[in-house]
Amino acid sequence: MQAQQLVKPKPIAEKPLSLVETADPQPDPGQIRLKVAVCGVCHTDLHTVEGDSDLPRLPIIPGHQIVGVVEEVGEGSGRFQIGDRVGVAWLNWTCGQCQYCRNGRENLCPEARFTGLHADGGYAQYTIVDENFAYPLPENFSDVQAAPLLCAGIIGYRSLRLSGIEPGGKLGLYGFGASAHLAIQVARHWDCEVSVFTRSQAHRQHARELGAVWVGGAEDQPPALLDASVTFAPAGWIIPLALGHLRPGGTLAINAIHMTPIPEMAYDMIYGERVLRSVTNFTRQDALEFLQLAGDIPITTTVETAPLAQANEVLRRLKASEIRGAAVLVV
Ligand SMILES: [Zn+2]
Ligand SMILES: [Zn+2]
Fold it and tell me: pTM score, two decimals?
């Protein structure tokens, strides 16, 4: 099969991925093999190919927003039939035994493996996955439209949940890329008043089109204090500013795997029982809930497509904030 493979991480300008011909993967018992239709491109893929994350396995095929069709089932796999369309996301496997797995927090499992990091992902013609870590997709979504739901969407949904935002509440979103453009639609479905903070004029325009009541920069003051916020930007300098926009008792949830250091700040920024919390991965329950909700609303995904061969170029454009909505590779 053809695959975009990472042998050695390097800056995206130096094209870390190479299109190679490699053996088709074979499903073990309990696994399924998918013929990949499309794979979404995520900021985490950029961290992987540039080596910001520790890479447990090289070479590796990135990609963890995979839409494909079940083509072969391993021995003892019975959850899906050949021909079913399924999605695969970031959470690739969890131990099922530890205190986190047993208490509904498998996102924190210390043994967890991730798609496109520990296991080959979807920048390829085929991929294999444990059948318990694949999801049926809402039927009213095309393959391309469904791909961004699988990371950007699910993690955005978990972030909203952890922010404690309630229906009708005032919500702030910092950064407006793949994840935020889906989260705002869930928040609007819950009748929230959403303020969006982003530097990019194109992203501000996009936020307005999706129902933001106010747009501005992180340095600007929104019309009223916010009940809850989510930051999607990997920029630590935003944290004290975002806390300054939050009412007492409000929560700021950080949706980022990496972030530049958070500047020193006065205790007053969190006094008043303001909560600052990170969002780490997601659970299969989050995925199932969000995919159901996305189909019911229904969410509209803004997508730019490119062929698999252009993975390096798409990642470069993602880094430069040149993508409107989400980028999807067509295999
Ligand atoms: Zn992702
Ligand atoms: Zn576990």
Answer: 0.93
Tokens representing 215?
């747009």
| Cβ–Cβ under 8 Å, residues 239 and 215 | no
Using DSSP, state whether 105 is helix, strand or coil: coil
| pLDDT per residue as tens digits for the range 64-116 | 999 999 999 999 989 999 999 999 999 999 999 999 999 999 999 999 999 99
* Cα(281) to centroid(ligand 2), Å: 13
pLDDT at residue 251, rounded to an integer: 98
CA of 91 to the centre of ligand 1 (A): 10
In the reported structure, the alpha carbon of residue 110 is separated from the centroid of ligand 2 by a whole-number distance in angstroms of 6
CB 124 within 8 A of CB 36: yes
What pLDDT score was predicted for residue 178?
Answer: 86
